Amino acid sequence: MSNYPLDTIRHSAAHVMAAAVQKLYPDAKFDIGPATENGFYYDFDMEHRLVNEDLKEIEKQMKKLIGRKLPFEHFELPRAEAEKMLKEAGQPYKLERLADIPEGEKIGFYKTGDFVDLCRGPHVANSGDIGAVKLLSIAGSYFRGDEKNKMLQRIYGTAFASEEELKEHIRMQEEAAKRDHRKLGQELDLFSFSENVGPGLVLWHPKGAFIRHTFETFWKEEHYRNGYQLLYTPHIGQSILWETSGHLDFYREGMYSSMQIDEKDYYVKPMNCPFHIEVYQSRLRSYRELPLRWAELGTVYRYEKSGALHGLLRVRGFTQDDSHIICTPEQIEDEIAEVLRFSLYIWKCFGFTEIKPYLSTRPAKAVGEPERWEKAITSLQKAVDKLGLDCEVDEGGGAFYGPKIDLKVKDAIGREWQTATIQFDFNLPERFDMTYIGEDGKKHRPYMVHRALMGSLERFFGILIEQYAGAFPMWLAPEQARLLPVSEKQLDYAKQVELELRRKGFRVETDVRASSLGAKIKDARNARIPYLLVVGEREAEEGAVAARSRREGELGTLSIEQLAEKMRFEVENKIV
């Protein structure tokens, strides 16, 4: 078992993979091969078009090189000698990377067997220290990520200190593949994308739309209960709005092109905040009105490169569960603590229990007075401490306009997701000249906090699908129970039970097909229905159902009232 840090093992594995590729394909030209969060990759330019079968041979060569325990030998060269060596080796991409190294900085190389790479390191002592490796997939990648450049071939792999850790990782990857929201979204008929509509623009199907309606309704009710007021704002705004906010200066590449209306430029909104500020600015405000907690399920549009789009997790049109808190400096500490508590409550209602905050502080370049920054950071830290949470601090990691707390949650298979954000903003209140009349009768600048609990509803839904593996809990499931008549003789009774359960507020369907009971049960299980209700001759005579719970298994024969009571308990308590 290797004792080196995982990123060092993986970076070294990338070099060994490149050495294996060089041995098998001597004409290969190399770009970069970094370690990543889950493994490593290397980009190649070569005549041979790689296919998945090639990975087996490359991996076989890697294991031979690892077995030889080849040393990673570091050496440095003057720039002129480094250029000469790379030109003679026919490595144009490495020459471009060499040009990126500032004058006066050391130019380092690592040699592994016959393979020499321009690299800062660090690396393991020899290839035998790498541990266990596995090559995973092949993809295309533009040089430097620029679509105008040549498409290179990228090989992804992973490495771990031991074979046991690698096997566990592969098992987790297989489990993640089973939970892939894109695959389940299609299987369960929840959502789709259409080239006719456009990439990254989601079409919500009836079942997916119902789940969205359910968690939107929950979101709205909880916000009203927690002292928020809801807003609705337009999808477009005049250019002057985005000039004032700074979006046209700093975020134009993420915005869609303007449209001309009445000889004025309008833009579809990439953010909701300027609209909320305009509501605030609609009249003079007093300190007695503050704090104001305004929330909106506001749909925004942002341009993402096509290569960055990923199912529901990265889209071009999405609905943010946006909120802005506008308050006095004296109120900010209590407001932040309440927002953090509320965020934790919402996520726990959906079954997420492992939640960790990350606090990002003032960067080198920042707007707003240092005293405001200190007060804001202190308020964020106190809120975290008050709730007894273990917080990781990212010194200097805040945005130029304010510090923030990001919440990350772990899902059912241990993956961490970036979710809620609590973000101070010292920039927009200045740009829009936001003020309130204080107790002294003078104008003061309010504090403003941006807050999103779910992030975007699309991304949130994608996370939920993977968290539950498509098996939504009773309160969210679009179909809570399915009646399965044994034969046509019980069809009328099944329809009677369906009507009775619907009148009690449950979402129930009857499988009216002439299929066998086994086929009906199989289809209902594949659809992840929480309750399967079989009705045969005996059940029809007794006015009952033979119930099976997805969560608890076989429940035996239940009366309709017993069943309804059990189902109601699950819904009201949001059992997951």
UniProtKB/TrEMBL annotation:
Its cofactor is Zn(2+). Belongs to the class-II aminoacyl-tRNA synthetase family. CDD domains: ThrRS_anticodon, ThrRS_core. Residues 180-485 form the Aminoacyl-transfer RNA synthetases class-II family profile domain. Its EC number is 6.1.1.3. The gene is thrS. This is Threonine--tRNA ligase. It comes from Victivallis lenta. One of its GO terms (cellular component) is cytoplasm. One of its GO terms (biological process) is threonyl-tRNA aminoacylation.
